[in-house]
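To: structure desk
From: M.T.
Subject: fold request, one chain
Message: Could you run this one when you get a chance? Sequence is below, nothing fancy, just the single chain.
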Amino acid sequence: MIEEIKPLLMDGRSRLDALRRALDIEVRLETIAALETQTYAPGFWDDAKAAQELMSRLNRHREIIKEYEQAECAYEEADAAHALALEDSGFIGEAEAAAAEFSQTLNDLELAQMLSGDYDDHDAILSIHAGTGGLEAQDWAEMLLRMFERWAERHHYQTELIDSLPADEGGIKSATLAINGLNAYGYLKSERGVHRLVRISPYDTQGRRHTSFASVDVLPQVVDDNEIALPTDELRVDTYRSSGKGGQHLNKTDSAVRITHIPSGIVVQCQDERSQFANKERAIQLLRAKLLDKRIREREAELLALRGEQQEIGWGSQIRSYVFQPYQLVKDHRTGFETGNTGAVMDGEIDDFIAEYLRRYAKRD
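Reply: Done. Structure tokens follow.
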């Protein structure tokens, strides 16, 4: 109703002003100007790695400004539509739509501010591993991979499949996906854990109901290589032939790479690139992410110990159930949030689950 729009706009204006202060918009604009000045310096690209790191920082600041300005623009449009509707009732529908759009944009911006972790604004590396159960679990792992790819697409994030291990009979045994975009890790860290599927298996000729599991892990990508040092004497590098379904595209040379970090025992591998060099670069990237994640978890464990708390959710815990039959329901076991629209969820609409997790996490902190 038209009378509900004005208080919504007044409250929204107040929240938007608070966000402007919280985001340090003026300071951030000065930072952007300073970084842009550095990019104009002669020889800026002589050190390609340093230049890329600076450009990454610059783009993150720009993205935050862009999101804030989008919220400001949505407010201006809603305010103008409201004023027009007060003069002509024929525009009430447009005013209500503009107010709803502004409210959603503002909620999204506020949600992003809950990402206060040191690495929440980083790109993400997401890994999926099929549980026991053969074809059914492997198919479930592939369904989850598509779900996260669709989610990334909805957010205009770039994705790249770093590594995958297709199963001979169908589906995937595992996959590792790089998801690049502002706050990708901050949002996706809520997806870490075991995802459970209950359905009547299309592969069961007797039409029986099956329960399948797949585990998801999420790591922050390392922006500065110096943050995680990797001395060569701490690494063991092995090469082997790519595995998979075979066919003309299967690499017949020892291009796949496996790297073991000797001090921690962490092992990573990559086989999807066509050259050994490219696979090694990808494996190093993944190893840095795993070591950074290890550091983050150790720090979180120390903080919880100081607070006298126990971690509620650890690796290997079942976080969400997806029931397709005999009824349709997706339920998060940590927050209690649920929806019956399983099709939308599997098409990447998981923002409500992420939002509920972040609100709960922010309240706990």
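Reply (cont.): The domain at 233-306 is CATH 3.30.160.20 (Double Stranded RNA Binding Domain). Let me know if you need anything else for the meeting.
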